[in-house]
Amino acid sequence: MRKTLLKFLTAVLGFNLVSSCFYLYASPHADYEAKGRVTDEDGNPVSGIMVDLATKYSEGGVAVGEPMGNDREATADDGTFHVKAADQYAFPDSLTVLFTDVDGVANGGEFLSKEVTLPVVKKKDGQGAWDEGLYGPPEDIEVTLKRKE
Fold first, then answer.
1. Nearest one of 95, 73, 72, 81 to 37, comparing CA atoms
2. pLDDT tens-digit profile of 37-49?
3. Which helix (H) or strand (E) holds 6?
């Protein structure tokens, strides 16, 4: 009885392990990116602003943002950014870019957070059967942040 039970458990666990690997490695996926520049209200570049990608969906009539698990990036000295989210298994029609001042008064003052939601377009074909390619907003994003009062 004990040997039969062990054989059964081994077979079930082995199948689950193989099927979960298949799901991870044999599923359609795509990469997402957003590029652009952040300035203040006077047109000056703002460095040190954290940029993150998210998708939005409605939950009970309320818009909810969910980070895409990407590499977050801070804007450069000239205010530019290029943030990517690789190997995403969901395919949203739009992308939300989050801008957050994480360094306080450094780099030109304190700024209010901002979200920009834009449609996505296919920018590049994928490399293989499961790679759907690269997606992102059709143009670079120009964002103006307001200072905190």
1. 81
2. 999 999 999 999 9
3. helix 2-25
CB-based contact 108:126 (threshold 8 Å): no
**Element housing 23 (H / E):** helix 2-25
Whether the predicted model's global pTM rises above the 0.90 cut: no
Summarised one tens digit per residue, pLDDT across range 85-105 is: 888 777 778 888 999 998 887
Other beta carbons within 10 angstroms of residue 91's beta carbon come to: 13
For residue 148, the SS3 value is: coil
Q: Position of tokens 């059967």?
A: 129
Mean pLDDT of the chain: 81
What is the C-alpha R_g of the chain? 21
37 and 143 in contact (C-beta within 8 Å)?
yes
Neighbours of 55 (CB within 10 A): 21
Task: Centre a 10 Å sphere on the Cβ of residue 122 and count the other Cβ atoms it contains.
Answer: 12
The two three-digit tokens of residue 92, written as one number? 């949203």
- State which amino acid sits at residue 142: E
34 contacts 97 by C-beta, under 8 angstroms: yes
Give the pair of three-digit tokens for residue 43.
């047109």
